[in-house]
Amino acid sequence: MPLSVRTSAPIFAALGDETRLAVVQRLCDLGPSSLAGLSEGANVSRQAVTKHLRVLADAGLVRRRRRGRATLWEFRARGLDDARRALDAISREWDAALLRLQDLVER
């Protein structure tokens, strides 16, 4: 398995959850936010949002920063680079396979 696929698996797993994807979307829309801000209007508790943020942080998609007494969470776009490279590699492999199939059919 290529390294980019192996390293991007936690990213795909983290984004595969609807709540975590909503948290990422909210961070992209609003910028750095507190736990209270991310929990507001969510259908889950603050404790659940904290658990989801930990999964996203472990996948390299968000990070926690202290600003004075406040703790802010922010999206890390660089966390998607491995996933993007993995998808590009898969796309190239499919393109090559389809070209081989086309060549075989046209013979």
DSSP strand tally: 2
In the CATH hierarchy, the third-tier topology is known as: Arc Repressor Mutant, subunit A
Element-level helix/strand string: HHHHEEH
Number of helix segments? 5
Domain module count = 1
CATH class: Mainly Alpha
| Global structural class | mainly alpha
Could you report the average pLDDT, rounded to the nearest whole number? 89
Radius of gyration: 18 Å
Low-confidence stretches: none
Strand order of the largest sheet: 1-2
Broad shape: elongated
Search tags:
single chain, 107 residues, mainly alpha, Arc Repressor Mutant, subunit A, two-stranded antiparallel ribbon, 5 helices, elongated
Q: Short summary of the structure?
A:
65% of the residues lie in helices and 11% in strands. The protein is mostly helical.
Structure in words:
With 107 residues, the chain is mainly alpha-helical. It has one domain: Winged helix-like DNA-binding domain superfamily/Winged helix DNA-binding domain (Arc Repressor Mutant, subunit A, Orthogonal Bundle). The protein has five helices and two strands. Strands 1-2 form a two-stranded antiparallel ribbon.
